[in-house]
Write a structure and sequence with these properties.
The protein has about 300 residues and is an alpha/beta fold. Helix content is about 40%, strand content about 15%. It has helices spanning about 35-45, 60-65, 75-80, 90-95, 130-135, 150-170, 185-200, 215-220, 235-245, 255-260, 265-275, 280-295; strands at about 55, 85-90, 105-110, 110, 125, 140-145, 175, 205, 225, 250-255. The structure holds ribose-5-phosphate. Ribose-5-phosphate (R5P) binds next to helix 10.
């Protein structure tokens, strides 16, 4: 108990200063309607200065096994900590391979389903409960959503259940637009899928870059992060990041185009220069090349 002897009288009421309201972060779309704890977690994901994020997706093993570039997560992740804002992975990967000293946001993959051996990956379940997400100090829970696929309705059910528990405990949900072999990749499709996910209540949506991306972003009332997709040459990947940011995306959630790069650390930094630093893709690529030549 506080010592009552010698207590100083409270007198600094600053009567001439308007109440500040203690707002945490205001440059992230949709954040004003969220409770304090959820805003706080959103500010662990989106840099409060830029309102943007660089997320590293390394959750591929949940259906692909030991993906190229992710063979040794214990060696890769420490190289990239400090270069990205958020690590997006599975609970198995976090518990075994990610140092708990990682000073970045945590996006936890909570949906799971069949392996790549199955033709149809759209029948997922919610594999991680909210208690474990809390134990892992998750800042967001990621759920795959298969609009237009056989498992569409199940995936909306998964999404809704995760959003409901996330709202109960203040953890944002990241709805991930899935694209399968038979599924469309058109602006019309991405507009439909992103808007549906936001309207279900997800606080963040991950989708692929497409033509007319600015319309996809305009119609989505929560922040959109751009997925990386399959590995392409570094300059091409950086151009996509640049165009995505120019279209109003709130950042990226990239996997293979970072960890399958010849120099993942330099690639992560080049991406961050575009997302947070406002650089164009040409300058970011020059940075990538210079760092790689210098052996950084
Ligand atoms: C995608 O939907 C899954 O979350 C992936 O495992 C991952 O995020 C894909 O990342 P990328 O396409 O950039 O390799």
């Amino acid at each position: 108990m506080a010592d009552k002897d010698g207590m100083k009288a409270a007198k600094d009421y600053h009567l001439d200063v308007p109440f500040s309201g203690g707002e945490i972060i205001n440059n992230v779309r949709g954040i004003k309607g969220l409770d304090w704890g959820m805003q706080k977690r959103m500010s662990n994901i989106f840099n409060p200065k830029t309102g943007k994020t660089v997320m590293l997706a390394f959750d591929h093993g949940y259906f692909m096994g030991s993906t190229s570039g992710l063979e040794r997560l214990d060696l890769l992740i420490p190289q990239l900590m400090g270069k990205v804002d958020v690590l997006m992975g599975t609970r198995g990967a976090f518990r075994t391979c990610v140092p708990s000293t990682a000073n970045c946001g945590i996006a936890l993959r909570v949906s799971s389903g069949s392996s790549v051996l199955d033709e149809d990956l759209s029948h997922e379940v919610v594999a991680v409960d909210i208690a474990d997400a809390i134990r892992l100090d998750a800042d967001a829970m990621a759920v795959q959503v298969f609009i237009g696929a056989e498992g569409e309705k199940e995936s909306i059910d998964n999404l809704s259940r995760v959003i409901n528990s996330g709202l109960r405990y203040g953890i944002p949900t990241l709805g991930v637009v899935a694209v399968g072999k038979q599924m469309e990749r058109t602006p019309k499709y991405f507009k439909l899928a992103t808007r549906m996910i936001a309207e279900q209540g997800a606080q963040i949506v991950k989708t692929y870059y497409c033509e007319n991306m600015e319309e996809v972003v305009a119609a989505c009332p929560v922040p959109i992060v751009i997925a990386g997709g399959k590995k392409v040459p570094e300059l091409e990947a950086l151009e996509m990041v640049y165009r995505g940011i120019q279209s109003g995306a709130a950042g990226v959630d990239m996997g293979r185009n970072v960890f399958q790069s010849e120099n993942p650390a330099a690639m992560a930094e080049a991406v961050a220069r575009i997302v947070h630093g406002g650089e164009d893709s040409k300058h970011a690529y020059e940075y990538y090349l210079d760092s790689t030549r210098a052996g950084k």
